[in-house]
Design goal:
- The complex is a heterodimer of chains A (407) and B (500).
- Chain A has 407 residues and is an alpha+beta fold.
- Chain A is built from 14 helices and 18 strands.
- Chain A is globular and about 65 Å long.
- By secondary structure, chain B is mainly α.
- In chain B, 73% of the residues lie in helices and 1% in strands.
- In chain B, strands 1-2 form a two-stranded antiparallel ribbon.
- Classes of the chains: A alpha+beta (407), B mainly alpha (500).
- At the A-B interface, helix 2, helix 3, helix 7, helix 8 and helix 12 of A face helix 3, helix 16 and helix 21 of B.
Chain lengths: 407, 500
């Protein structure tokens, strides 16, 4: 172990000395790659993580992948650790896409910025479905909307992904639900069998055996394909507000089982990782193994994942305010990465797109910290079309606190 | 189900060299995963899945199940010898197993734990077999209302576990409950007592707390006292397999207790959401309370080893019930086993009984065989393992501290827990030196979260009327009985003392 650490340290220093010329697949020859899984061993993230790690190892000859479970705080600890790791391409990992919520809402403890992560790929599209027990007395979306008494549904805990999703659905398609928290793991299925709760919302593939066994049925789905056999939530919404909430949930179903590296991984090394990921997820053996495990593989790679994550993070102030009120949290700042639509009055007034909404913002000469092309800049230098990462306080004058623009 | 199928499954299993060979390989692996603190059966399955990939369905399932079934047979070994629990559910075994080692009875304690594990495992398998026809009504009878009352019943055992001072026991128990409330409140999503520390969001890690409260104080005490764990020095040559056999005999001498705790363990195992820790502590509490001489407990009573060890092996059979026949796992360990079974091509669910009954029986027999063979295999080495209790403290203490820190890190993976070990370790040492009881702390810590979550659920689902459910009334009666029994016995003891 120690020898290996020394060996990899020597390898790394050799690499640094000889520059990027070495950075092809041969960079990984004799290297140990740590694959961080942000949950305990066992369970979906761990299964996908181990599978991806095993086959990336196969497609990076001479490398050795070690899966490291870093559980805690609803994936936040693992994601923080991954984000803070050295960007040498020897630490990569996976975590819950639901951390998009954590970042949008600026949750306590978040020390990562998903926009800056080096995205390698995602392994699955995992539609989520609303499961109802066979004896629940309700079966369809209509039943859930018109119930005289709120229908009880189980979630794992307030603030968890299942809770957030369920709250969003209630708001978006007007479901009359009563949320009962405290069902972790598969306890929700047992609770449905007992009749404690009528249903639950979660990954369709993980509920599927329960339905196949005849214990329940699905009422509707979020993120299913055009050929899906279930009603789709996107067709059930009638308001703009609802549409944007469903879009947010759906974006997460499409980006399931991510693999990322810390920010700042050198371009060529990242490309090597993406290539290995691509080969791994197309490997016939991996697909056969995944089929046996009953887990879907619908991959997407590199920049496509980065773009989709950005789209999910770029929400309009209205949507963020709505999500915040649903989750009962206070949002202090919002951040978007977008181009400047207009710059007026010597840079004092700018407009930009935040989600699908155009925001007019007053730039402060003293409080707003502006960087242009990496160096400290002035608002006078802002120009239309510049791409900027803008953090601003929503409401009132929408004053930016920081602006980081590309020159 | 025909008897011929039951027998043909057994014959098929014992006459297959492959299957027997796999069981023989699985047993030492399982015991190893149990005996190294922090590893546990769950991780065992995760790490073995790559090896069973591509195996025949029956062979793979038998291998994994046999491995998982004997984890707690091995887990009690460090509990007894060093006061370090191999797994969470083996922690209760420390209470009397370690004092037995201190009295020079390590061999007997190991024998008792071995016999109890074997017997518990077999009874667990029997419960599994017997309950197949009436599975659904039994498993589904237990809802959050009953979970809450069962947790409260367990908490009333604090009285019996308090030693000579009820007040001290209640204070320590309340402290355990308080520590149990650290973490994200599932009802509000608010962080409680986490002091801005992310690692506390999931609560205080149980293994860490138990290691700190029990192993650390014992090792400090051993260092201060000098000598070896066993206060009685014995010539190594004098120490024989006889002690181990005597210990196994104890299990059958207390057959009525062994049977009761095995069945309680199996029943708790099959109810999802309670877990192995609750099973072994509730059974330990039950053993103390039902004993005619409760004052012997905590000082090396063999029943204190038998009760938790029967329970933590028998729960395995119980927890397989919902996993195999509903396809709904009762614990996180079973969830992983379920995943592995699906990978092997087995489709757990109600159709198992109809379509795969021969496989079910093969698994039941594998459970029985693994438990029995584990006893036989370990018997061969128990003598030498027991000698560790006579090792000089100076050699032992550093090794145990490595196990303590390693165990905590393997279990939760947060370096901050190392500081918690020091904090709780000092607290535990203080309690030990001043004669305050420590078991109520663990009772509070284990049962607190179950009581809290299920109370909220029961109130949200039924309102206060949940107390009037038929099974709730039974548990309320048990709780009342438990308290009344304690008061009666205390009153009687008082009057006896006055009379004398």
């Amino acid at each position: 172990m120690i020898h290996r650490t020394i060996a990899s340290a020597i390898g790394l220093s050799m690499l640094l000395a000889s520059g990027p010329a070495l950075a092809g697949a041969e960079y990984y020859d004799g290297k140990t790659v740590t694959y961080i899984v942000a949950t305990k061993a066992g369970g979906g993230y761990d299964t996908y993580g181990r599978l991806i790690a095993k086959y990336m190892e196969k497609h990076l000859p001479g490398s050795e992948f070690i899966v490291k479970n870093v559980p805690g705080a609803g994936h936040i600890i693992g994601a923080n650790q991954l984000y803070a790791a050295k960007p040498d391409g020897l630490t990569i990992g996976t975590f819950n896409t639901g951390l998009v919520y954590a970042q949008i809402l600026d949750r306590q403890g978040v020390k990562f910025d998903l926009r800056k992560m080096s995205w390698i790929g995602k392994a699955a599209s995992d539609p989520r479905a609303f499961l109802l027990g066979k004896d629940a007395g309700v079966a369809t979306v209509k039943d859930l909307q018109t119930a005289a008494e709120p229908i009880r549904v189980g979630v794992s805990g307030v603030g968890s992904a299942s809770y957030n999703d369920t709250r969003m659905l209630m708001e978006a398609i007007d479901l009359k639900l009563k949320i009962i928290p405290g069902y972790s793991g598969k306890e929700d299925e047992m609770a449905i069998m007992r009749g404690d709760v009528a249903g639950a919302f979660g990954s369709r593939s993980s509920f599927q055996p329960f339905v196949d066994n005849g214990y329940g049925r699905f009422a509707f789905e979020v993120g299913g394909g055009a050929d899906s056999d279930l009603p789709q939530a996107r067709d059930l919404v009638t308001t703009d507000k609802g549409r944007s909430l469903i879009a947010l949930v759906q974006s997460q179903t499409e980006l399931a089982r991510l693999t990322a590296a810390p920010p700042g991984v050198p371009e060529d090394i990242l490309e090597t990782l993406r290539t290995a990921y691509r080969s791994a997820t197309r490997d016939g053996d991996l697909l056969a193994e995944a089929k046996k495990l009953g887990i879907p593989i619908v991959p997407l790679y590199g920049d496509d994942v980065a773009e989709a994550i950005n789209a999910a993070l770029n929400q309009s102030p209205d949507t963020v305010a709505l999500v915040a009120s649903i989750m009962n949290v206070e949002v202090k700042v919002l951040s978007v990465k977008t181009d400047l639509l207009s710059v007026g009055d010597k840079g004092k007034v700018i407009t930009f797109l935040s989600g699908d909404e155009t925001v007019e913002s007053k730039v402060s000469g003293s409080r707003t910290k502006i960087r242009i092309g990496g160096a400290e800049g002035d608002r006078k230098a802002l120009k239309v079309g510049m791409i900027c990462a803008i953090t601003y306080k929503p409401g009132g004058e929408n004053e930016p606190t920081t602006m980081d623009c590309e020159s | 189900m025909g008897l011929d199928l039951v027998l043909s499954s057994l014959i098929g299993l014992v006459t297959s060299p492959t299957l027997i060979g796999l069981i023989l390989i699985a047993i030492p692996i399982g015991m190893f995963f149990g005996a190294v603190p922090g590893l546990g059966g769950k991780l065992g399955i995760v790490l073995l899945i790559p090896f069973v990939f591509g195996m025949d369905m029956t062979a793979g399932a038998v291998f994994l199940l046999a491995m998982h079934a004997v984890v707690h047979t091995g887990g009690s070994v460090p509990s007894i010898l060093f006061g370090v629990p191999g797994t969470g559910p083996d922690a209760a075994t420390i209470m009397d197993g370690f004092p037995m080692a201190q009295k020079g009875e390590a061999g007997r304690a190991l024998g008792a734990s071995l016999g109890a594990s074997g017997l518990g495992g077999v009874i667990g398998a029997a419960v599994l077999a017997v309950l197949i026809p009436v599975l659904a009504p039994v498993v589904l009878a237990f809802s959050p209302a009953e979970f809450f009352l069962l947790a409260i019943l367990g908490i009333t055992f604090i009285a019996s576990l308090s030693g000579n001072s009820l007040i001290k026991g209640m204070i320590v128990g309340a402290f355990g409950l308080m520590i149990a409330f650290v973490g994200m409140d599932p009802q509000t999503g608010v962080a409680r007592f986490t002091f801005g520390q992310l690692f506390l969001w999931d609560g205080v890690d149980l293994i860490t707390a138990i290691l700190a409260m029990f192993a650390v104080p014992e090792m400090i005490a051993l260092g201060v006292k000098g000598g070896s764990v066993s206060a009685v020095t014995r010539d190594a040559a004098n120490y024989s397999i006889r002690d181990v056999v005597v210990g196994m005999g104890d299990v059958f001498r207390h057959w009525w207790l062994s049977l009761r705790t095995s069945i309680i363990g199996a029943v708790i195992g099959m109810i999802p959401g309670l877990g192995g820790d609750a099973a072994s502590w509730i059974c330990y509490g039950h053993a103390v309370q039902s004993s005619k001489t409760p004052e012997r407990f905590g000082k090396g009573a063999v029943e204190g080893v038998i009760a938790p060890e029967t329970a933590n092996n028998s729960k395995e059979g119980g927890s397989l019930l919902p996993t195999l026949f509903f396809g709904v796992p009762g614990s996180s360990g079973m969830a992983i086993l379920l995943g592995a079974l699906i990978m092997l091509g087995i489709q757990p669910g109600p159709r198992m009984i109809v379509e795969n009954l021969d496989l079910v029986w093969t698994l039941i027999w594998a459970l029985v065989l693994a438990n029995v063979l584990a006893v036989v295999m370990f018997l061969g080495v128990a003598r030498w393992v027991g000698l560790l209790a006579f090792m000089r403290g100076g050699l032992l203490i550093p090794f145990v501290f490595v196990l303590v820190f390693l165990g905590s890190y393997l279990s939760h993976g947060a370096w901050e827990n190392m500081l918690l070990i020091l904090l709780f370790g000092l607290l535990g040492y203080g309690l030990k030196e001043t004669g305050w009881p420590r078991p109520p702390f663990v009772i509070g810590l284990v049962l607190g979260p179950i009581a809290e979550v299920s109370l909220h659920q029961a109130m949200a689902i039924w309102g206060p009327a949940f107390l009037m459910r038929p099974l709730s009334l039974v548990f309320l009666a048990l709780i009342g009985g438990s308290i009344a029994f304690y008061l009666w016995r205390r009153g009687r003891r008082r009057s006896l003392e006055i009379g004398a």
